[in-house]
Each structure stands twice: as structure tokens, then as C-alpha cells.
Amino acid sequence: MRPTLKRRELLVYSVGGLLVACGGVAAPSPAAPGASAPTPPTSAPASLKVRLGSVSVSAANAAIWSAEDGGFLKKYGLDAQVSNVADSTQAVAALLAGEIPLNCGISGTAVVASVLQGSDLVIIASTVNTFPSSLYAKSSVTSIAGLRGGKVGVSRFGTASDTAARIALKQGGLDPAKDVTLLQLGGLNEILAAMQSGQVDAGALSPPQTVLARNAGFRELIDVGALGIPYVYNGVATSRSYATKNAEIVDATLKALIEGEHRFKTDAEWGKSIVAARTKLTDPSQVEETWRLFAMKYLQEPPFPTDAALKTVLDELAPTQPKAQSASPGTFYDDSYLRKLDASGFIKSITR
Fold first, then answer.
1. pLDDT value, residue 18
2. How many structural domains is the chain composed of?
3. What is the predicted pLDDT for the residue at 45?
4. What does the mean pLDDT of the chain come to?
5. Separation of alpha carbons 105 and 176, rounded Å
6. Cα of 64 vs its chain's centroid, Å
7. Are 330 and 189 members of one domain?
8. What is the DSSP string of 154-216?
């Protein structure tokens, strides 16, 4: 079951001052057009109830999409309801309130910002550990420098798309705070729509929106992913208190994510059926490109968080959150659950 939380349902949980991350829209139906549904693996009795979350309709969510649609959540004994949350501000608020206690597709920026303000949230895995992002602009703009004085769309300030946009602009010698106007548009689909309407001159996008932008005639100014900058783009996060009290659920969720991600990466036709179903792409070449980018380039296996990825988050937060300047990256993640699975031989049994 995969309901989408509406903004008004989560505003009650809003936390003042939290930075936002990765805006999105509701996830579409999992049934791939024209494709037969994959046969789920043999399930264990679904005895552990949990509400899981993801953020945005981006193939960065391939691990949780595959864990759900492939039946791996049920295989590991979870009776899971997976909800797509509009953006990571709301996702953080839902984590703090216990409404959705475990999110499987959240930007590290919002989590770290929350911890810096005193919460006990923690990143326990990272399925995408760099930016799968590009800065696209209208065709008349031929370089990043050409955006001086222009408008650039991001999902929300403090999000992964915002961070990617700022990095991209700096690469082109522009000061994001002075040389352009950054506009918050709500999500990746909204950024692309604003580019098409002429509301903005450029936008920070990730697949499949990058594929759609290129096909619509927009120009890629820079592939931020090609820079190889470590970053917690698609993290798995919860609260330390929830993880301690519900270690069995955490372990089962990680197992399902690991196995789902591996099948997505190694079973091309099945992986492409997941992309088509969740993104509603109908052009086979667009589906193929989106699947290939994540399966071959961006999905990290196994999904261990790293100091380097958290340091990028801290560096980007430091100008507005002084505590980030002296914080240790290791403060914000706990890889003990993954290390336990690794020591047991589980990870190798799936990925060998």
C-alpha cells in the first residue's frame, strides 16, 4: 500500500527552522504499462507493522521502490505501508513525530540540519551517495556564466537540488547568493514545468527529469554527478530512539532495500519495469536511460554512509548553521546495523 501524504496532513508536524530537502510529488501506480508484474519472492509471515517513507518521484528511490514492488519487504517479515512525502522538511517532521518513523529516500541535508538543532535523527544507510544531478538551462544559455542575473529553480532551499545548483553555479564562477536569483518551486517536476513556462532560466534536475529536459530542448550546462562529489542524496534515516527500540524492523528494512536494489541493478528488464511504473515514462529509450544511470552509476552497493558524504553536507550548511563548522561527520550516521548484516554474511549472500 502506497498512499501519498498531502502537505496539509504534515504541516502539524512542521519544525521551525529546519532546512528542506528533495521536493517531490505522489508516486504513481506500481503496475508497469504493458509489463507483467514480477513474481514476488516467497514471503515470511508479515508480523512487523511499520510505516516507511520516501521523498520525490526520482529513480534515486529505486531501492525502496524495488523493495516494495518486488515483495522484499514482505519477504523479511514486514507489514509495511510506504508513503511518498512531498519534501524532506515534511519527511523530517514526520520522523520526529513518529508518523513515518523510517524514511528510505531522504536527503542528508534535512536530517543533519535537524540534528544540529538538537534532534536525535540519524542516517543508517545511503543508497545514493553522490549527486545524480545536472544543471539544465534554456537553449539560448550556452554557459553557466550566461546565467548571471538570471533565475534558477530549485525544489526548496537546503535541499539536494538546491545544493547541486549552488555547486554547479560555483563551478562556473558565479556566486549563488549574488549573481542569480534562486527560486523555490516545490519539486523536480515543478522545476521542469517552470523552465518550460519561462518562469526560470535554468534548474537543477535529476533523472528522469534530466532526460525529459534534454528531450524538450534544454541544454545541460554541467553534469554535477560527473564531479564525483560525495553527498547523502538518498539516505535512510530514523531516530536513534526508534532504531534502538525497533532493531528488528530496522534490520528487516535494510535487508529488503539491499535485496531490492540488487535486483534492480542486475535484472535489467525488471528494473526498467519499476522505472516505467513509478515515473510513468512511456518512451522505452527514456526508461532505459533512467534505469541505466542509476543501475550502473549512482546506486551504491552496499549502501554504507561515509564521512566524506556527510562532510559535504556540513560544508554546505556551515554558512547558515555555525555548529556545522566544527561538527564531526560521524555524529550524524550509525552504520552499525549495516556492519552487523555484513558480518553475518547477509550482504555477500545477496550481492555475490
1. 37
2. 2
3. 53
4. 88
5. 26
6. 10
7. no
8. ESSTTSHHHHHHHHHHHHTT--TTTTSEEEE-SSHHHHHHHHHHTS-SEEEE-TTHHHHHHHT
